[in-house]
Amino acid sequence: LNCEFCGSCVSVCPVGALISRPFKFQSRWWALNKVKTVCSYCGTGCQLTLGVKDNKVLTTIYDENQGFHNGQLCTRGRWGYQFVNSDKRLTTPLIRKNGTLTAATWDEAMAVVTKRLSEEKAGGGTTVAGLVTPRLTNEELFLFRKLFKEVLGSDNLDHSAGYAHDALTKGARESLGYSASSAVIADIQKTDLLLVVKSDAYETHPVLGFEVNLGVKRQGVDLRIVSDKRGKLSKLPKAVTYVHKPGSELLLFKAMARVIFDENLADAGSAAVTGLAEFKKSLEGCAPDQVAGICGLTATDITDLARDYAKAEKALILLPLGLGYPGHGAELVQALINLALLTGKIGKEGCGVLIMGEKNNSQGAADLGLYPTAGGKNAAAIIEGCASGTVKTLYIAGENPVISYPNRKLVEAALDKVEFLVVQDLFMTETAEMADVVLPACSFAEKEGTFTSAGKAVQRVNRAVKPVGLSRSDFDVFNQLSSALGGAPISADPETVFAAISAAVTAYRGLSFTSLGDGAVYEVSGAAKFVPVAGASVTMEEGKLALVTGSALNHCGTLSRYGEGPMLVCPEGYLELGREDARKLGIAEDDRIKVTSAAGEIVLKAKVGSRMPQGVVFAPYHFGEQSVNNLSTGAPVTWVSIGK
Ligand code: SF4
Ligand code: SF4
User: Can you tell me the ipTM of this complex?
Assistant: First the structure.
């Protein structure tokens, strides 16, 4: 049994014969307080019910009436909740004194932070910067943005290392006129053909993987997968997988467009879309036989794929974003939107591009503009600014750049150099360890507010437990700082802030906090256009293997490392390689192997299987020990050599 640990069998067991180990002997079912909320891991936005007793989240409870997914959760949503009551939670503020982080009161810590931010404000806000996780609620993100842009006068703020939201905030915005998907989750089961790009949705967004499964098995949806490795989706009936060389996907999608032009498969309506002629011109030199070798496919593969996509009456493209996927940026989504526009597959049921943000509120962070919009520094520039001294104060709320941003050495050197570092988090992360002030934050289970899913559903998050220790919600901390720094008076509650959001953000107009019900899917519209993309391919390094990074099924970001469930099943990083490469290199399952790139060297456990094509290896990015960002510097592909 290749079990995914989704827990569905436990949750539907009618007689209670199957019971989860973490919940065993904890409580009677009927003694639990049941709180409906939203999963705080990935952008799928599954609704879940927490079972609470004595101010502790003891389990998740199956409710078949919850959400588009009928209560189904993946392994992370089902078992990852234990981080809420982890004994590793930060319970008190800390201030660095004589080199050591020392317990302090909130008044002391806030006084230090307020003083520093006041000085930055007085200096014009040019040397202060903020990095925020898209795990916070919309209301908290809105307050953080206000704190920076309106109170401190700084446009130096970003999330998700910058590149992990570019597909939305730059790619989709330029191509569609809005920074969101053109499709919704329900389109997965209403389409005729799914084109899943560079993802095993089972790993990145597992419940969307279930939706794909249902679409294929129940609705007869055709499945095409374009990826640099095989995954579970490849095993579904009728799935056709095109395994391409890492880094060649832009060329592949351009070649598909070229076939569509050459075989007159374009939709008549595409002639009216701005930029068609320039787009067509940009495809010169991209005929299938010209790029097939670079892509590692045959010209027939590319032609067949283009025909299948173009001829399907309805076709939907799925693309994941995230810190583990540095190549999934603006150009990739634009190449895909070009295909959809060319074939008339935008703005119709079962059609379009579904851009699957990595975190629970990645879409909200894009909607609310949590990135520089007036020439300020993005995440990469903020890190560089810390290193060069142009950023003197850095406020990090929930991000863990030491592990999750590219180039660990550079990030550590930058955070070491910055004069003043505030980290607000649930845990003493690798980043928090470097801070001057650490503020203990609340988890999603201690908050009220909203998250917005990849499918544009704005959903209510409900408080299940009181704050752990002395932790405070990010909402309260930003509110207090804003007020102390001369900003607007404290916003009383998330409902008031949501009203301000719906007044300020066009897509949220008309939504109200109290009437979101089971989630309100917002509508977006814009002027679509073709945007030519460069389509450069990655140059292979002789004798090296191509390392691609991404998400492991049991983990999401670096937060899941604090959940017992995910760590029980997948406790450490690994390097996955194909059998042929393993045989040639004399590597067996579980061997400890040295992985070396131009940037550094780490030791990982080997995982040998049939998913990886020859010459390509995969490593998940979630883990602190031997973190994969010791090797990668943000390029879509990192060239490595491996040995014992
Ligand atoms: S946990 Fe999920 S995958 Fe594993 S046996 Fe139960 S239902 Fe099947
Ligand atoms: S698919 Fe994502 S949102 Fe749904 S339960 Fe899993 S981690 Fe949570």
Answer: 0.93
- d(C-alpha 62, C-alpha 49), whole Å: 7
* Statement to judge: residues 397 and 297 lie in one domain: no
Q: What CATH number is attached to the domain comprising 192?
A: 3.40.228.10
Tokens of 109: 């810590």
Confidence of residue 88 (pLDDT cuts 50, 70, 90): very high
How close is the Cα of 202 to the center of ligand 1, in Å? 14
Distance 77 CA to ligand 2 centre (A): 5
Mean model confidence pLDDT for the chain = 95
Q: Is the CB of 3 under 6 A from ligand 1?
A: yes
Q: What is the pLDDT of residues 470-494, one digit of tens each?
A: 999 999 999 999 999 998 777 779 9
- Can you tell me the mean pLDDT for 505-527? 94
Separation in Å, CA 37 to CA 53, 67, 132, 434: 16, 10, 22, 33
Shortest CA distance to 185 belongs to which of 42, 340, 36?
42
Q: Is 2 in the pocket of ligand 1 (CB under 6 A)?
A: no
Which amino acid residue places its CA nearest to atom 2 of ligand 1? Answer: 6
Is 8 touching ligand 1 by the criterion CB < 6 Å? yes
Q: Closest ligand 1 atom, CA of 1?
A: 5
Kindly report the CATH number assigned to the domain that includes residue 375: 3.40.50.740
Which residue minimizes the CA distance to atom 4 of ligand 2?
46
